[in-house]
Amino acid sequence: MDGVLLLDKPTGVSSNAALQRARRLFAAEKAGHTGTLDPLASGLLPVCFGEATKFAQSLLDAEKRYRATVRFGAATTTGDAEGEIEAHGPVDFDRAALEAALRRFVGRIRQVPPRHSALKVEGKPMYAYARKGIDVPRAPREVEIRDLALVDWRVPDAIVDVACSKGTYVRVLAEDLGVALGTCAHLAALVRTGTGGFDLADAVGLDAIEAMAPDDRPALLRPVDGLLAALPRLDLAADAARALCCGQSVAAPPDLAPGLYRAYDASSAFVGVVRLADGRTLAAERMMRGAAASSAAAPQRAGAT
């Protein structure tokens, strides 16, 4: 059971609870998701099964896309709709002022992580301190907002599309937008619409999966190498693929640029990620289990291409 499930996570459940339910539905021994969504949030949660878990980091590091509902005029204890309202403010700006404020947040910005976050301080998540009323220092972190577009504005709610780097807190962005407009705000709703090369339109919900016959469910899985679409492809001869899968280095083809590659054997089967570091040899970075055996059975090809 190796592959990637594009799961449409519902609101009201944690990412881990959704992961465990999906794991049971697919009877998968090994599973992991590629970026936590809070229980308040819904949308795309790619779930990796089997060998795909080895390559999940690529999606953890990938740009994320969201549709967020920012509610102006009220601040909450958590920065989102799960918290209690702790302050009120006016909502006396127009659409033009809102769009101007959004433009100010595009690019590299610094965010102070929320008190209620999973970031750890001395081995404990920050939310554990917050629940006890303990305020711990929170150092600002640099993140990048690549795009921030207003979809709809109906007082007091703004619906915005956000494209951002990993580590971005959209609820902090909502709070900071409130400050920029002379009021307060919180995140009322959040839907992840994309990550890496995957899109929410292609995702499926847990109830729909459960309604399927068990034998039909594996057809929902995307190939493992779909996690690595951003890496250039490198085709290898069968003997080179086999050697790399066994942990050996092999001679690199001429004029190959240094970096990481998604590698395929002579039968075009994905075998893993390899690295060219010194300009002369390829080394295994992370390889698929069993790829050496499949490469041994593949037809020969004259070197890497």
Which helices and strands occur, and which strands form pairs?
Elements: E1 3-9, H1 15-26, E2 31-33, E3 42-49, H2 57-60, E4 64-72, E5 74-76, E6 85-88, H3 95-104, E7 107-111, E8 120-121, E9 124-125, H4 126-131, E10 141-154, E11 157-164, H5 170-180, E12 185-195, E13 198-199, E14 204-205, H6 206-211, E15 233-235, H7 238-245, E16 250-251, E17 259-264, E18 270-276, E19 281-287, H8 291-297
Parallel strand pairs: 1-14, 3-12, 15-17
Antiparallel strand pairs: 1-3, 2-3, 4-11, 4-12, 5-6, 7-10, 8-9, 10-11, 12-13, 16-19, 17-18, 18-19
Helix pairs in contact: 7-8
List keywords for this structure.
single chain; 305 residues; alpha+beta; Pseudouridine synthase; Archaeosine Trna-guanine Transglycosylase, Chain: A, domain 4; 3 domains; ten-stranded mixed β-sheet; five-stranded mixed β-sheet; 19 strands; 21% helix; globular; disordered C terminus
- Cα-based radius of gyration, to the nearest Å: 23 Å
Strand percentage: 25-35%
Strand elements, count: 19
- Could you say which overall geometry the principal axes of the C-alpha atoms support? globular
How many alpha or pi helices?
Answer: 8
Average of pLDDT: 89
Counting structural domains, the number is 3
Going by CATH, the homologous superfamily of the largest domain would be Pseudouridine synthase
CATH third-tier fold name of the largest domain: Pseudouridine synthase
The largest sheet is: 10 strands, mixed
DSSP helix fraction = 10-25%
Classify the oligomer: single chain
CATH class of the largest domain: Alpha Beta
End-to-end separation in angstroms reads 30 Å
Structural class: alpha+beta
Sequence of secondary-structure elements: EHEEHEEEHEEEHEEHEEEHEHEEEEH
The CATH architecture assignment of the largest domain turns out to be 2-Layer Sandwich
The low-confidence parts are: 295-305
